[in-house]
Write a structure and sequence with these properties.
By secondary structure, this protein is mainly α. It has one domain (2-53). The chain is built from two helices and no strands. Keywords: Membrane, Transmembrane, Transmembrane helix. The chain crosses the membrane at residues 28-50.
Amino acid sequence: MIVIIAAILGFWMGWTRAGRAGGDRKDRWQWALAHLLIFTLVALFATLILDRMV
């Protein structure tokens, strides 16, 4: 569940960040997908670490 929320949040943050920087649609997609991947990987590792601790 954490991974899905992080993926959606990362996509949204990347999309809005590129929009503020004046990017067109292709820039927004690139930034959104890059943020999605980063947030998803961080959340995945955080979930694995938390699961191992409990």
